[in-house]
Amino acid sequence: MLPPxxxxxxxxxxxxxxxxxxxxxxxxxxxxxxVRKRRALLLSAAPSxxxxxxxxxxxxxxxxCSFTPLSSTMERGEMLAVCLxxxxxxxxxxxxIQRADMFPYGTLSGDLILAEGDDETSKVLSLPRTLYFxxxxxxxxxxxxxxxxxxxxxPMEKQYVDDGxxxxxxxxxxxxxDIDTSGGRGQIYYRVTETPSVLNRVAxxxxxxxxxxxxxxxxxxxxxxxxxxxxxEQTRTTGPSxxxxxxxxxxxxxxxxxxxxxxxxxxxxxxxxxxxKESYNVEIELPxxxxxxxxxxxxxxxxxxxxxxxxxxxxxxxxxxxxxVGNTGIPGVWLFHTGxxxxxxxxxxxxxxxxxxxxxxxxxxxxxxxTTPEYGEFEEYPDNTFDPDNQEEExxxxxxxxxxxxxxxxxxxxxxxxxxxxxxDAPSSPSEDSGRQVSYGxxxxxxxxxxxxxSEPEERQYAPPNPPLPEGGAxxxxxxxxxFPLEVIDVYPPHRNEPPLSPGGHVVxxxxxDVDFDTGVIQYTTENKETCARFQQQCxxxxxxxxxxxGFCCHCRPGFYGNGRxxxxxxxxxxxxxxxxxxxxxxxxxxELNNIDLHAYIVVGDGRAYTAISEVPEPVGWALMPLAPxxxxxxxxFALELPNSQxxxxxxxxxxxxxxxxxxxxxNQRLSIIQTGRGLDDHNHLTVDTVLSGSVPFLPPGxxxxxxxxxxxxxxxxxxxxxxxxxxxxxxxxxxxxESFSFQLKQNITYRDCRHDSRAVAPETLQxxxxxxxxxxxxxxxxxxxxxxxxxxxxxxxxxxxxxxNPCYAGNHDCDTTAQCIPLEGQAFQCQCAxxxxxxxxxxxxxxxxxxxLSSCGAHTQCVNLPGSHRCQCQSGYELGFDxxxxxxxxxxxxxxxxxxxxCINGLGSFECRCLPGLYGDGFYCSQQEGQTVRPKSQCExxxxxxxxxxxxxxxxxxxxxxxxxxxxxxxxxxxxHGSTGHCWCVDSRGQERAGTRTPPGTAPKDCDKPDExxxxxxxCExxxxxxxxxxPEGYPIVGAYVPQCDADGQYIPxxxHGSSGHCWCVESNGQERPGTRTPPGTTPTDCDKPDExxxxxxxCExxxxxxxxxxPEGYPITGAYVPQCDANGQYRPxxxHGSSGHCWCVDNRGQERAGTRTPPGTAPKDCDKPDExxxxxxxCExxxxxxxxxxPEGYPIVGAYVPQCDADGQYIPxxxHGSSGHCWCVDSRGQERAGTRTSPGAPPIDCDKPDExxxxxxxCExxxxxxxxxxPEGYPIxxxxxxxxxxxxQYTAQxxHGSTGHCWCVDSRGQERTGTRTPPGTAPKDCDRPDExxxxxxxCExxxxxxxxxxPEGYPIVGAYVPQCDADGQYIPxxxHGSSGHCWCVDSRGQEKAGTRTQPGAQPKDCDKPDExxxxxxxCExxxxxxxxxxAEGYPVxxxxxxxxNADGQYTPQQCHSSSGHCWCVDSRGQERAGTRTPPGxxxxxxDRPVPVAPTQRPxxxxxxxxxxxxxxxxxxxxxxxxxxxxxxxxQFSPVQCYGETTYCWCVDQDGRxxxxxxxxxxxxxxxxxxxxxxxxxxxxxxxxxxxxxxDVTLLYAQGQKIGALPLNGTRLDAARSRTLLTLxxxxxxxxxxxxxxxxxxxxxxxxRTINRALMAPGAExxxxxxxxxxxxxxxxxxxxxxxxxxxxxxxxxxxSSNLDGSGRRTLFxxxxxxxxxxxxxxxxxxxxxxxxxxxAPKIESSSVDGQNRRVVVSDGVGLPNALTYDSSSGQVCWxxxxxxxxxxxxxDGSGRRxxxxxxNYPFSMVYYRNHFYYTDWRRDGVIAVSKDSSQFxxxxxxxxxxHLYGIAIATSNCLSGIH
Length: 1861
What we know:
By secondary structure, the protein is mainly beta. Helix content is 9%, strand content 28%. It is built from 21 helices and 98 strands. Strand 46 (819-823) and strand 47 (829-833) form a beta hairpin.
């Protein structure tokens, strides 16, 4: 039997009468002697006398066991025995519920019956009220045969019945198995009910299981499976089984919550699993699944991932126990809280009798058989509270899931626990509350198993095994403890409930004798205990220090991470710098590395680590490419953390040593790597030095090294982490081809940890996954590069698996590189800028802590801003003190800086040198005055003189420069002043400014002789004041800025006033405004010293009034805003008036307008104190009238809005007129216009009281006129709309005019414009009554002329467009000229240029009337010239194209020049450039008529060249793109790779041109061929075919999140074996995808980066961004290979755009009448676009021409969610796959011939068509599905290894195939 799929939770208590070891409560543990011996006593076969005696005391003992701690005088062993017996007796009397105890069911109860069958689903069960399941609302349910209830229609059973949780759809599963009711084997009943007895029973059950729940059900769903059987194969020889099951699910819910009961009556479960249908005669049985699953949930618009789930069972035994135990105290009854309207993470089981370990909110827990180890025969689960009196007793067995070094015991010493039976198959579930019991019958029964929520201290939980006690009962010493692997309970998302660490504590010193320098592991001793008070400086400035019993530890503050000694801001990218040195032997050559630079950059948010080593000598550069482990260190330090893991830097900090040994195979070369972390530098960058020593294999120059993704397991021990792995890598070189090698890596990383914090949980093993490894050596730059993408997780977790649903863990979020991605519930996440950065998380900017006053720098320090942080450095004359944080004065005199004859005087931050009495000088030089004529200049004088002489400014003193002032002794004057600005300040003896002494001009300067007072730090008020910007960057004052006022002590002045506005208010000590104290300008300010009166809360009116914005952000008043008026008590005044409009009205006490009280300006307002007459409801007319918007949001009147007129009774006035336009018309009682009654302005209106004549139906003209929308939804008139004019009979007036543009034209009876009748404004219109002359159709010339676009969309003329000239009959004028270029030529009747007639500008044109000489065929030059495309599809000239020049005979002119670039060169007779003749623009060209000098050794024409010329002649001078032409090297040899024309069907040839067998490539990548070594001597044999093979390679390209995959087709079958990843695009979400077969390029849209990109389908091709602006949500993409255009949809602004394939020429085709556009295709052969719009209100498929003309709807009926779209070239039909209707359909472009290809797809997203097959990506299967058009059947399926949604799909071919591109 195969092992069952593990579920997240297992509840498997043993049978009530099952023998086996029992769990003892903690209160009966470790009592004197050996517990093992006591167990033997208790479970012996013959009860002892003490037990028999205890039985007599049973009633008393039961009470004692339940409520009294074991402190009585009774012998503890006897008490234990009696309590066990008490417990056993209690359990034995409890029996499972009977069938009669189930909720009523059957037809008499109103149940519906599900149809018989193996895979039936009920009709939709509509719910009267919304049901909340998890946190989602559902309004319908489905009941299915297979023991489940779902909130959505179910797929086929094979997609879920044999799979474990989670499911793709929402599921309540009382017994999910393959059930079959065929042949009358059982019935399934279901109903939704409001029966009071049922509601009351559900309420009682919920209140018993959840005593604190406030739940009153309003509806209950009851589903009952009665006597149902398991599915059995018909071919089995045995008859049908008689095993039948009965069970029930009850869902009760109210407005906010839902609860579910599962009921399993006694004898109701007789089979416990079912055999899978496709077990292939293997006797396996899958146990039933019981639990809940939310189903897939959506994130990032298109992406879907697994939602949370919850399992009750995990194996067959747990299924068997369903009716024998329960979580409500009643066996067989299970209760769960399953949903809430507000906040809900995962299922909550009932909590009677204790709590059992359940998975956390994400639904990714482990079953109990992994969380409860089975090593011990006794286990206990103490409460999670700490009692120091009982700690020693609790230390014997660690708490499961807790910290083994910290085991809390129950508070107050209460050790009462319920007893739990245990068995090897069914680990028991502990209980926390044995005092709570459930009354069932007449016996109080302690519960047996209940879910328990485990609180975790560190985002991660360990379940260490509980080993058996040794003989004697003494706890095991550390040396005796057996080593068991820790098991991990994943928490998803992690809980963050660790209690905060308190500052203060102890630390231990490092004893050098205890350091093992061989291993690098640092040991600690407690002989000299150190504390935070003395050694806090060892912690980072971003950490705090905590004391512990044995020493102190440093902990990073919130927002930072590290080991406490070194902390870095969370989320910020990190940089590493260092040196690389050592000797590396490559082959036999040693190479010295002399301190070359290493730099690394790590994007922590997604785990990307880039490493670059500069100046690497070439031999060793190639050889070190496989040494990615050099850069992998940084990936491990800063890896992307998955749940329950931590990156290396959090453990090591910035000081560590990594020793690694690499052994290469097969050569056994060995290389040692030692990398030493030396801390953080001044820029907060990690410094790491690397030493390499040993030998590496030689790699050929130019080789490429590839390494596959891999996983590596790190083992963690105190102070060291180790790992061992074997890596394989491939080397591809031109010399050796492809070779495979491997190496073994052994490494250990030693660091200094802190063991004093016993609560710290360190990992034992973690797994690093390197998803992408790129290595390269750039020879030209001598740079060696490594790029690795890293994720760290618990061992066994697949980082790319379905459980990693959150983009934070997948690394595909869109947070800024300087932001932290914070996972929220499900797929949601939040971007939070890293510490030290500010922004919205998508865009973050560095905070300048120094400029904003946010630094932690103290006195005498200077703040230096760093990216994301800052550094405090001491001012000149100061240095860091002992604590490493504060700056202390440097005693400069200790270094004797002065002259020997001078005295040194130390001061704060400076010193002074004074010459001894009788000597002269500045102290640095002293001499006797006598005989000393000139003393040397002092520092001050040198400084002063250098500025005055202009030395620093090239001889000219700078205006406004500060010139220091020196005294007579040459010393700096203590007071310095700037002559230009007027500022003054004090300086020290070295001329350095003393902080805090600068004074502005006009104020008294400081007394510089007065010693400095200790400078106090700035207060909050001063920081606030100084941060206000009062001057613009240009130096102008900023008016209106509020600057807080501070007193002399830096505190806020109690009364603050705004200088510009005049408002004043009182503030608290922290500067916050005191409510109610603000006064307007001109009023007496509030007395801020007076205590506040109790402030009444604001009324509704005051809130309303104060929320109105009456002033713009610039301070201007906003006119037209209505501000409600409140009385003194804050109530609405009964009469309200609008100050701008003058309207007044009455309001009620809520401020609501009283109907009928509004008066216009100038009229007397209503008496609002008069009681209202009984108000009648508003009529339709009044509703219509009041809904018209006549005032803009700014309060301006809206001109042109039509407002209906109502009479006094609120009915429509029969005659309605539009005040702006003057039109009048009659309306009926509903306000609908009566046909034929509209009159123009100025005409007498119709008599609306006159009865209607029998109404004729509306004519086409009237319908057209009335359908025109002239008023916007907001009531504004729409200017510029053309409204057709109809006569009194409803017919089109013969002449139509556009009121806005002034154009007029004639129309026929259908309103169609008559050709040639349109006249522009200002000209006389045509006489439309005059009959048309018979109109001739447009000629070819006129069509071509009219199609040329000569005006841009903005109305500017397009220069350079060629417009054909036609005569009066529409025929081409024989002589055509290009107006811009001046060229002229003759054309034939079809407009084709006649060869040899083109003349240059300024030359005499040809006589085109002269008869042609017999036309010769076009030459190769003329064909070449005429094939060049100089005009784009839209008619624009194409600049920069080279057009060859031909002479009169059609031959290439010897000299060719490129008109755009200016280059010129000579060509031979075939147009091939002659080597060495090209000249740049401006240089004199080569004389091409002069023979080329022939070197004496010039070779004759080679075989390849002769054969090439022969075949070109054979093809008539111009080979077709698919025809073979030999490719020759410059020296005449055959090129190693030969291809058919422009295709990629290629092969290798030898030196003679013969094909190398086995090298033909059908792929898009050309084969790698080696060059020939000698020139050929004979013609190659055999000669290759000259036509391409019919079996052109076809590959499906599909988009899957961050990659584009390639799936080859073998015929029409999916060749999964050859599938591969084509492009890996980290951080992208690829949606739309298209392929250009002409240039072999792939194009795609990136939803994450909001770009459109392309890349060549070739190895190593780099993606190219084409468009990266004004894109929001680019989805579908199409490429027109003929017109070289691409088209895409943007589903956020709802637009369709196009551009050239290089991104130029971008234009918007459609931006109206689109709601949710998605797929788009282009049919190049017809020039037609098709696209889908899955607008849920009106989905449709539309089409137009590629230039945006002729837009129309192809299909709109019967369409749901048309996601996928393709074109069937064989039938000419457009086909779509619909995720709403689940159908694949096709229809002709004209809407006819619609047919269904397949009726039941899953969830299609994108689709292509090829050879009678449709291939679509499916979101339910997460794969590619093939459907045959002929059979309408699924024919094939491909599911990638990595499961995630697939988006776009496209076809790539090695040649352009008809009907595809």
